[in-house]
């Protein structure tokens, strides 16, 4: 390579114009901005939110400029410093495993990119909706691109680590950094990149905090990049750069060649169910079979699922009532039992007494997962579901692509129903017209003059823009 990867990423992030984006990319960006805001608002009421907010509120003044009002936290009447608000909003977006992702990269890019972009827009002021869409698109390209470059199973929590670099690119663009400064910001981000898979293995609620740490770091990296420090150059490809250190085996050139030609924002998958994406094939399978054949949960003897090794690794854990909601969201057996008993999976199934329901756990113990031997360490599909009934009847279902993948997208009605349900879980009551106003503003996002109005509305304020 004649240029460093940081230089090539910086060129893409800063030289892309809104008019370079194809219509499909713009449309999907608007879909996932709305979806992300809804999920982030719902995350404001998750257990532990008040305590975490109290800690984040102590991280610096509302803004370096005394006249600036800080950045809003979604679903709350609270404003914090831009890095702290980005931290809280990122945590809220990922704390229920309900945010969209790029399946091939295994990166929940929007959880870092959107909170960082809106916090940066608050600092910059007068950022248009078209500029926000462009910043989000290039940020997702970089976050997902790093995941796609990886050729080994991940040891570090890629949504946090790769997502942070995408967030840095998006924030830098909106803050007006030039190419050299963005390359320095990437170096600062490498210095702060963090998050291992241990929290995921144990189903710890620290897992989404790792996304939040890297999102806060992205804002800090952009601000630090204005200082006269000599920065590392081979941020991504150097011997101790991001990819060799965090991912090991990688192939970068195909990703770099795709910049400006393939828009990863158009490749994101929705999360139709509020649980780890790796559970979604099993959830859809048992739901489809139950609707098709009409059996009750009490008639089920066993549920058997064959899936790629990544599914086993991510959600193959046994059900354990004492481990709490973060563990349950990453437990295929728990999610399937809830669906068989209720016919659906809802955010409320991971709160309060629902988590310890004896009938759920008794049924969950009859769900087994089997490694199908798929050689791709990052594959989430295909998945095969077999339901064996007490009378010996066997029903089977399989999928090559999970529901809400871009080739099987949610309808607009399904997308908006999810969004509206998320707003029912805001930490503070929202005005009755908030869902409608957010939908309308996002639908016309490319014509919005100042996206601070969007952020304020997501926080529960009533902007006039």
Can you tag this structure with a few keywords?
four-stranded mixed beta sheet, 2 domains, 49% helix, 465 residues, alpha+beta, single chain, 6% strand, two-stranded antiparallel sheet, 2-methylcitrate dehydratase PrpD, 20 helices, 60s Ribosomal Protein L30, Chain: A
Order of helices and strands: HHHEEHHHHHHHHHHEHHHHEEEHHH
- Content of β-strand: 5-15%
CATH architecture assignment of the largest domain? Orthogonal Bundle
CATH class of the largest domain: Mainly Alpha
Could you name the CATH topology of the largest domain?
2-methylcitrate dehydratase PrpD
Cα gyration radius (Å): 21 Å
Overall, the morphology is globular
Helical content, roughly?
Answer: 40-55%
Account of the 3D structure:
With 465 residues, this protein is α+β, with helices and mostly antiparallel strands. It folds into two domains: 5-272 and 411-459, 2-methylcitrate dehydratase PrpD (Orthogonal Bundle); 277-399, 60s Ribosomal Protein L30, Chain: A, CATH 3.30.1330.120. It is 49% helix and 6% strand. The chain is built from 20 helices and six strands. The chain has helices at 5-15, 23-42, 49-56, 82-94, 110-124, 129-149, 158-175, 179-192, 198-202, 206-224, 242-247, 253-258, 280-293, 309-315, 325-329, 332-342, 358-364, 412-423, 434-443, 452-459, and strands at residues 71-72, 79-80, 300-307, 367-371, 383-389, 394-399. It has a four-stranded mixed beta sheet with strand order 4-3-5-6. Strands 1-2 form a two-stranded antiparallel sheet. α1 crosses α8 (179-192) and α13 (280-293) packs parallel to α16 (332-342). The protein is globular, with a radius of gyration of 21 Å. Residues 62-68 have low confidence and may be disordered.
């Amino acid at each position: 390579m004649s240029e460093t990867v940081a230089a090539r990423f910086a060129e893409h992030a800063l030289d892309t114009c809104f008019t370079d984006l194809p219509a499909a990319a713009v449309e999907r960006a608007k879909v996932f901005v709305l979806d992300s805001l809804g999920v982030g608002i719902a995350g404001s009421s998750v257990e532990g939110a008040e305590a975490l907010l109290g800690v984040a509120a102590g991280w610096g003044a509302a803004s370096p400029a005394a006249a600036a009002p800080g950045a809003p936290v979604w679903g709350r009447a609270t404003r914090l410093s831009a890095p702290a608000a980005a931290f809280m909003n990122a945590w809220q977006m990922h704390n229920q495993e309900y945010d969209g992702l790029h399946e091939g990269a295994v990166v929940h890019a929007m959880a870092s990119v959107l909170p960082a972009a809106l916090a940066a827009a608050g600092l910059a002021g007068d950022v248009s909706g078209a500029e926000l869409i462009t910043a989000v698109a290039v940020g997702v390209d970089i976050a997902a691109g790093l995941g796609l470059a990886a050729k080994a199973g991940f040891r570090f929590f890629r949504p946090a680590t790769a997502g942070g670099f995408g967030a840095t690119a998006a924030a830098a663009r909106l803050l007006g950094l030039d190419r050299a400064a963005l390359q320095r910001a990437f170096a600062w981000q490498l210095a702060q990149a963090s998050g291992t898979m241990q929290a995921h293995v144990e189903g710890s609620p620290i897992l989404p905090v790792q996304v939040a740490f890297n999102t806060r770091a992205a804002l800090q990296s952009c601000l630090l990049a204005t200082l006269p420090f000599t920065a590392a150059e081979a941020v991504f490809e150097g011997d101790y750069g991001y990819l060799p250190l965090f991912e090991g085996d990688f192939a970068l050139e195909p990703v770099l060649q795709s910049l400006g030609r393939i828009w990863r924002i158009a490749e994101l998958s929705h999360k139709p169910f509020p649980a780890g994406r790796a559970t979604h094939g099993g959830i859809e399978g048992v739901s489809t079979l139950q609707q098709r054949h009409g059996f009750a949960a009490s008639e089920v003897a066993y549920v058997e699922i064959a899936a790629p090794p990544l599914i086993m690794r991510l959600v193959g854990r046994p059900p354990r009532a004492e481990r709490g909601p973060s563990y349950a969201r990453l437990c295929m057996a728990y999610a399937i039992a809830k669906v068989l008993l209720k016919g659906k999976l809802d955010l409320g199934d991971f709160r309060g007494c629902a988590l310890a329901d004896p009938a759920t756990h008794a049924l969950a113990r009859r769900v087994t997962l089997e490694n199908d031997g798929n050689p791709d360490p990052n594959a989430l599909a295909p998945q095969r579901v077999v339901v064996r009934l007490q009378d010996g009847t066997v029903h089977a279902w399989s999928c090559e692509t999970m529901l809400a993948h871009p080739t099987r997208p949610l309808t607009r009605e399904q997308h908006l129903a999810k969004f509206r349900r998320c707003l029912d879980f805001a930490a503070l009551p929202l005005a009755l017209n908030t869902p409608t106003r957010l939908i309308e503003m996002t639908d016309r996002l490319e014509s919005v003059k100042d996206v601070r109005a969007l952020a304020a509305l997501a926080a529960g304020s009533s902007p006039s823009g």
